[in-house]
Amino acid sequence: MTDQLLVFDTTLRDGEQSPGASMTCEEKVRIARALERLRVDVIEAGFPIASPDDFKAVKAVAEAITESRVCGLARALIKDIDRAAEALKPARAGRIHTFIATSPIHMREKLRMSPEAVLEGAVKAVRHARQFTDDVEFSAEDAGRSDPDFLCRVMEAVITAGARTVNIPDTVGYSVPAQFGELIAMLRNRIPNADQAVFSVHCHNDLGLAVANSLSAVYHGARQVECTINGLGERAGNAALEEIVMAVRTRQDVFKCDTRIETPHIVAASRLVSTVTGFAVQPNKAIVGANAFAHEAGIHQDGVIKNRETYEIMRAEDVGWTANRMVLGKHSGRNAFRARLAEIGVTLKDDAALNQAFERFKDLADKKHEIFDEDLQALVSEGALEAVESVKLMALETASGTGTKPHADVRLAWNGKEHEARAEGGGPVDAAFRAIEGVVASGAILQLYAVNAITSGTDAQGEVTVRLERQGRIVNGHGADTDIVLASAKAYLNALNKLLVPDNRTHPQLPRGM
């Protein structure tokens, strides 16, 4: 019999801790629905105690999701656990995930607690969480650098207290595969009541080993992996869901387990997360990168033509790579448009949202001949961005050419009035940014400017990501248009609008790898 490997997705919680990757409540629900369509077992929706916005998002996901289990994170504190339980009340199936650090450096320098106090706090937290649900997960933060004997004591105690999942995080990405796999095997062998809990792992990618460490743990008996779409996450990110799932499924001769993930939806989920966060997927990224199934060398092309398996160990269709070309144009109706959105897993909250998206579709169809699914994802995301605009672009004109100084004229709606400004720059994009700043004067520092073609062809929409920093706060903005200068202005304004909204997230003692 093949064991089931549970997939615990933390894109909405740990993934959001990537600098600038903040998501609105509506965006989190969209991603949660895509994860549900993938048949993810557990969706970690957020950290409810962190802020009112986080609480609202966890509650919204709990209300929207019916097929996956919804999880809320909590420190090993009574107030955190109570808050998580309140947010999870609407969930059909909920889980409370509580944690405390167990490594010497964390206990000494961060918690200022003795090992015995940490052990006592862990047990107390699990017992309290069990009052709300019988599905309680406990994590030993920085387990990869913890004393093995102490780790065994903590895990035995929390299992006795009622934890049905115990998580071993490599919080700082310090472990290497052989060592980490042996740690999992040791814990499962030494802990007397190990058979009463599912062993889970949560690996970070600081040394580029998150997926390898996770797979080593699975090989040695872990039966839950905590991961994110596209490997999104704090610092260098988390283990990538798509890579773990396809490695386990492709190498059934090695891994005696499998997930229930519906892999043909992987690419759509990847695109959605990339669009919402503004974090582009690198072309050579495994599984979901644009070049993942591309063959350049003649000998490779010849081999694939003769037999696909000569150079392909997976079918592109199995993870969602298809032509996905819409047979729709500017003469298509709303029903056909709505049907195609449903086919790619996009749902809109009401008819008004559908009508707005349809109008944007018609405008785009006038600009480019062929519309692709990636264009649809961008259209829906653009509608969500417009809903939170406080500074809105009314008009933009730029000019550049040989022997002339590029300049831009902008007209913005802000604070109930229209404002105009002109600025020169090193190019039309630079001039546009300077003109916008001439009105808003945000004082933000541009940290990143990146352009990605959403689809192929010279009429493709350009997707622009802008990262701004002001007084230590970092935000990402993104915009899309067939005009790359206009897309850049949209992205810059999207980031500015985020900066203009007060940051209500407090993230007390925010877990770095949990």
Q: How helical, in percent, are the residues?
A: 25-40%
**Rounded Rg:** 24 Å
Q: Main sheet?
A: 8 strands, parallel, barrel
Strand content: 15-25%
Query: What is the global morphology?
Result: globular
Output the structural class. alpha/beta
Q: What is the mean pLDDT?
A: 88
Strands, count: 16
Subunit arrangement of the protein: single chain
Distance between the termini: 31 Å
Q: Strand order, biggest sheet?
A: 2-3-4-5-6-7-8-9
* Individual helix count: 16
Poorly predicted regions are none
Describe, in plain words, how this protein is organized in 3D.
This protein is an alpha/beta fold. Helix content is 39%, strand content 20%. The strands form 4 sheets. An 8-stranded parallel barrel has the order 2-3-4-5-6-7-8-9, surrounded by 9 helices. A 3-stranded antiparallel sheet has the order 11-12-13. α2 packs across α3 and α10 (266-277) runs parallel beside α14 (373-386). The longest helix is centred in the last third of the chain and has 17 residues, at 351-367. The radius of gyration is 24 Å and the shape is globular. The mean pLDDT is 88.
